[in-house]
Amino acid sequence: MKKIIIGNWKMNLGLKASLKLAMEYKKNLKGTNSVVVAGPSEFALADVVNILKGSGVLLAAQNVFWQNEGAYTGEVSVKTLEEIGCRYVLIGHSERRQYLGESCRIVNQKIKAVLILTQKISPVLCVGESLSTKQAGKSKIFVSGQLQRALVNVKSFEAARLVIAYEPIWAIGTGKTATEKDVLEMHGHIRVWLSKRFGVVAGKIPILYGGSVKATVAIELLATPDVDGLLVGGASLLASEMKKIANIK
Ligand code: PGA
Question: Where is this protein found (predicted)?
Fold first, then answer.
């Protein structure tokens, strides 16, 4: 299976800079060894997808609402993301949990909405513990709890479209990548959890790692068992860095 490399541009770029980066992705990321995905902010999605046409680079949104349509000021629907051509949507990123109060219940509603309202978009469920939870030795139990609550009422056949991203909060934007041992243990733990919950379908669910990923650390990460791809923040703002990561065999 090809590795999935998602660039999470967050709110780092304005419209012009987003379009410029999309052009660099188009130039540099055609025909790599991986499935490459660009995640611009919402206002740039439609223009970025036009630029990326023919490059093979796919599109991810950073957010979605759980209702199909209606009076929900400032939100974006599954239908709109589908019309734009998004193939992935990040759900439950720790920054949204922290700054926007996105609870596990909200995360669950969003996951369910994407799985039910469209066949074309994969929800990327982000989970991961804080530094204090890690120091207390409770990382695995914490992540199991997040998975449990985010995936309430998700059926096995629906789960086949899921992607999980393990993003320890202490590694995001800090320059401190999780060690190979941390990643190996947590990804193995997540796979076992998914197998108990969804049976054989668990083998089809890609588990990505995220948190201070750069090309230099990506080789080791991608060689770790149960690491099916990477969610890249800061380093995804450089197409050259994404190219190096996406070409790792
Ligand atoms: P980072 O962000 O690579 O800048 O640590 C990763 C993420 O939050 O998705």
Answer: Cytoplasm
Report helix, strand and coil shares of the chain as percent, to nearest 5.
50, 15, 35
* Nearest ligand 1 atom, CA 173: 5
Each residue's pLDDT tens digit, 201-246: 999 999 999 999 999 999 999 999 999 999 999 999 999 999 999 9
Instruction: Confirm if 191 and 140 have CB atoms less than 8 A apart.
Output: no
Cβ(18) – ligand 1 distance below 6 Å: no
- For ligand 1, atom 7, the nearest C-alpha belongs to 233
- Quote the tokens at residue 63: 């957010």
Closest CA to 77 of 117, 37, 105: 117
DSSP for residue 95: H
Q: What is the largest CA-CA distance in the chain?
A: 48
For the entire predicted model, the pTM comes to 0.97
What domains does the chain contain, in order, with CATH numbers? Answer: 4-246 (3.20.20.70)
Active site residue 93: yes
Nearest alpha carbon to residue 165 among 247, 216, 95, 242: 95
